[in-house]
Amino acid sequence: MLRDQSSDRAKREANKAFKPVKTQKPINDYAKDQHSFNENRERLKAERLAREAEPKDRSE
Question: Is residue 28, in this structure, part of any structural domain at all?
Answer without folding.
Answer: yes
